[in-house]
Write a structure and sequence with these properties.
Structural class: mainly alpha
Helix content: 40-55%
Shape: rod-shaped
Strand order of the largest sheet: 1-2
Largest sheet: 2 strands, antiparallel
CATH architecture of one domain: Orthogonal Bundle
CATH class of one domain: Mainly Alpha
CATH topology of one domain: Non-ribosomal Peptide Synthetase Peptidyl Carrier Protein, Chain A
Oligomer: single chain
Number of strands: 2
Number of helices: 7
Length: 148
Amino acid sequence: MSDLRFARRLAAEILKVGETRIWIDPEAADKVAFAISKEEIRKLIKEGVIRKRPKATPSRGRKRILKEKKRKGRRRGKGSRKGPRYDEKEIWVNRIRVQRRFLKRLRERKIIDASTYRRLYRLAKGGYFRTLRQLKSYIEEHKLARRF
């Protein structure tokens, strides 16, 4: 097959597209090879021997695979989430569990009595203590523990 680079370049210039988007009919390759002027190329375009290829669109194959995985429940972990880094509720749950566990331990060891336990439990539920350390210092300050 003869060299069609020159014809391709001229056609690209005429059609205002890149050279890769030029389609040349392989049947008429010899005819195109002899075209050396823009006028001859324009005539070949009119005949349909040289055409402009459609724009290539990105493949959606990978997107479909991802969609299927997400439908199965994959790719939903902490690292894939956008928005706040920490879930406020999650933080609250973790904090209150620590405090309640501590209070329960104190009650079981008879360090605090049931009524004190109940009062501290309600304070914890109300968000009075931000940390376990704060709860401990509150117990010490108010002398609520028999021994600590």
